[in-house]
Design a protein that fits this description.
Layout lengths: L2 E4 L2 H12 L7 H23 L12 E6 L4 E6 L6 H9 L5 H11 L7 H6 L11 E9 L8 E5 L4 E6 L6 E8 L9 H11 L7 E5 L27 H12 L7 E7 L5 E7 L16 E5 L2 E7 L11 E6 L15 H24 L1 H21 L4 H5 L16 H6 L8 E5 L3 H5 L5 H6 L3 E4 L4 H8 L1 E2 L2 E5 L24 H15 L3 E6 L8 E4 L7 H9 L9 E5 L4 H11 L5 H17 L10 H12 L5
Parallel strand pairs: 2-8, 11-13, 14-15, 14-17, 18-20
Antiparallel strand pairs: 1-6, 2-3, 3-7, 4-5, 4-7, 5-6, 9-10, 10-13, 11-12, 16-17, 19-20
Bound molecules: adenosine-5'-diphosphate and magnesium ion.
Length: 630
């Protein structure tokens, strides 16, 4: 007895769109069905490793397509895992993933109503794409469970579907497609061959095609090339082929920034094929959201998202690892504890880093693109992977106060030290522009000392992890004990005299009292030249980069009291000192001191509430622009 079921509301809508829309690539229905067949074959092969009770153990793992050019039907058969009645209802009647919803939203918002291959693939509405070409589809399936009954699912794609018992005796699934009037062109062996070549050439199982009414040749050859990309000679593969394979793997239609294909025989055998995606952001619509690469053991897919073979900082890579050395009985659960995995991981990681190094050396422009997208990841590597530290250090790039926007290595910075310079200096800022404009750089510029720009949050971890490079300690430009007296070219003497010691002492006492707990102390600067003041981090306080890290982790931290340094050569400081000496301890002086401090915070990009300065600023403008003193 056949039973009728209604489609989930969302599926009905998806189908309605697929049936009635404009499309440019309807041929991809075949890619989707072949990919399902290939998934089913992979899954049964995996079952056979671990499970005794599999129906038709001896059956060849193949995909057969037969075309009835006269009756306009196509049948796609596989000897895969099959489906029970329950599984067929789950698999073809319900969209478990949010794919359907997103597909509908996307269509609703799209300016171009044409449905293209990318869209179908992206939203995981794979099977339903068959209704772009079919007015009736019958799915006959028998599960690999020896005692499961076979089942027939059929639908015209509008109302719902029918389920009936059937008498298929062998394992697998046959999908019979009755082509719609406007899709008869697909009832052609030649046409289907062409489509398979284009979209499914590397499917891991042989695909045979056969015309109904003709004898099936005993010696027939599969029409697809099959050889897994990663098992081929790296030198024989065009980038174009890689790009195609990459997009079929990830549904990312931007070509990868880098292709990394490597193989080894001894002491460990493996094939590895990795791609660096053009961006670390995954398209939110692709099904491949989880990190991880595909792991094959002797051609059998063991794990779709394996994260044990690469350290976390390389999880941005997409691709495949296939090893003949992994025992076939490894399962997803036991992979981690397999000692071979640890060995593979270390060899593969080294290969990846070497390849990055090769690109960095041979093609700095290409490497700059990779760095642009993945600098945070590689810095994370320095922090977490001690074993590969040296290699990772040479992959780091920075812009500096002397690099004019170009990227330089730590090695280059270490080779460019000024006369008498021991430390490597860095400035922490939100971006390159603020770094370049930092008040702290005055003294460094004057003396010709190069300063690293640290503009990423992760730098807060990187600096303490590094500590030093090549024996040169890393020192912040706002460090308390900065002494540049004998470093680099001598700074040009300031034109203006310094405020005399006694008056300056009074001013410092006054400022200290005015600012109270907001500052640790106030002192005369030995390094400032063009700015009147700056904030210095006491050696026992939290660094700017640590602060930034904490803020990013959403930790509430108060601005730590810092040391306010004032420039005794600066006219502004002269004026304040003179006012104080003249006994003018008025509101204007108070506000000036407050603004001096807040200005220094503003310059460091750390003023907690810049808008509170406005009132003081206005009253100062008012005072400064007053025409007559009355
Ligand atoms: P996806 O392949 O992304 O899961 P599809 O719409 O292509 O989405 O397929 C839906 C589900 O139907 C599959 O996940 C699978 O469980 C089942 N299915 C489809 N085709 C087959 C097949 N040939 N053999 C076994 N199961 C299949
Ligand atoms: Mg599918």
């Amino acid at each position: 007895m056949a039973e009728n079921y209604a489609f989930q509301a969302e599926i009905s809508q998806v189908l309605n769109i697929l049936i009635h829309s404009l499309y440019k690539d309807r041929e991809i229905f075949l890619r989707e069905l072949i990919s399902n067949a290939s998934d089913a074959l992979n899954r049964v092969r995996f079952e056979m490793l671990t499970n005794e009770d599999v129906l038709d153990k001896e059956a060849e793992l193949e995909i057969h397509i037969s075309v009835d050019e006269e009756n306009k039907t196509i049948q796609i058969s596989d000897t895969g895992i099959g489906m029970t009645a329950e599984e067929i209802v789950d698999g073809l009647g319900i969209i478990a993933r949010s794919g359907a919803r997103m597909f509908l939203d996307h269509i609703a918002q799209a300016e171009d109503p044409t449905i293209s291959a990318d869209i179908i693939g992206q939203f995981g509405v794979g099977f339903y794409s068959v209704f772009m070409v079919a007015d009736r589809v019958e799915v006959l399936s028998r599960s690999y469970h020896p005692d499961a009954e076979s089942v027939l699912w059929s639908s015209t794609g509008d109302e719902g579907y029918e389920i009936d018992v059937a008498d298929k005796t062998n394992r697998g699934t046959d999908i019979l497609i009755h082509l719609r009037e406007d899709a008869h062109e697909f009832a052609s062996v030649w046409r289907l061959q062409q489509i398979i070549k284009r979209h499914s050439d590397f499917v891991n199982f042989p695909i045979y095609i056969h015309k109904v009414g003709e004898e099936e040749e005993a010696e027939a050859q599969p029409i697809n090339q099959q050889t897994a990309m990663w098992r081929r000679m790296p030198s024989g593969i065009e980038q174009e082929e890689h790009n195609k394979f990459y997009s079929s793997l990830t549904l990312d239609f931007e070509p990868p920034l880098l292709t990394l294909h490597t193989q080894a025989d001894a002491p460990l055998q493996f094939y590895a094929l990795f791609y660096v995606p053009h961006s670390p952001e995954r398209n939110p619509l692709t099904p491949r959201q989880e990190p991880g690469i595909k792991l094959y053991a002797r051609k059998i897919l063991i794990d779709e998202y394996n994260t044990d073979l690469l350290p976390e900082y390389l999880w941005f890579l997409q691709g495949v690892v296939d090893s003949e050395d992994l025992p076939l009985n490894v399962s997803r659960e036991t992979i981690q504890s397999n000692p071979l995995i640890a060995k593979l991981k270390s060899v593969i990681t080294r290969r990846v880093l070497n390849e990055f190094q090769r690109v960095a050396d041979d093609d700095p422009e290409q490497y700059a693109q990779i760095w642009q997208a993945y600098s945070g990841y590689l810095k994370h590597g320095v922090v977490s992977d001690y074993g590969n530290r040296d290699q990772l250090l040479s992959l780091l790039r920075f812009t500096t106060s002397q690099s004019d926007g170009a990227l330089v290595t730590l090695q280059q910075v270490a080779e460019n030290l000024a006369e008498g310079q021991d430390a490597i200096y860095y400035v922490v800022a939100d971006d390159v522009e603020s770094a370049a404009g930092s008040v702290h750089l005055d003294a460094f510029r004057a003396r010709g000392i190069e300063v690293l720009y640290l503009t990423e949050t992760i730098d807060g971890l990187l600096v303490p992890a590094l500590g030093q490079y090549d024996g040169h300690p890393l020192v912040a430009v706002d460090a308390e004990e900065l002494d540049l007296e004998n470093v680099g070219q001598p700074a040009v003497e300031s034109e203006k005299e310094a405020v005399d010691d006694a008056t300056l002492g009074d001013l410092i006492t006054y400022i200290t009292a005015e600012l109270g707990e907001q500052v640790r102390s106030v002192r005369a600067s030995k390094v400032l030249s063009s700015s009147p003041a700056r904030l210095v981090t006491p050696s026992d306080a939290m660094n700017r980069h640590q602060e930034r890290l904490y803020r990013m982790l959403n930790k509430e931290i108060e601005e730590q009291p810092r040391i306010l340094e004032i420039n005794s050569h600066h006219p502004l400081i002269h004026n304040l000192a003179a006012r104080l000496a003249a006994g003018l301890q008025d509101d204007l002086l108070k506000r000036s001191v407050r603004l001096l401090y807040e200005g220094a915070m503003l310059a460091d990009g750390v003023h907690p509430r810049p808008s509170t300065m406005v009132e003081d600023v206005y009253s100062m403008i008012e005072a400064a622009t007053q025409l007559i003193d009355n």
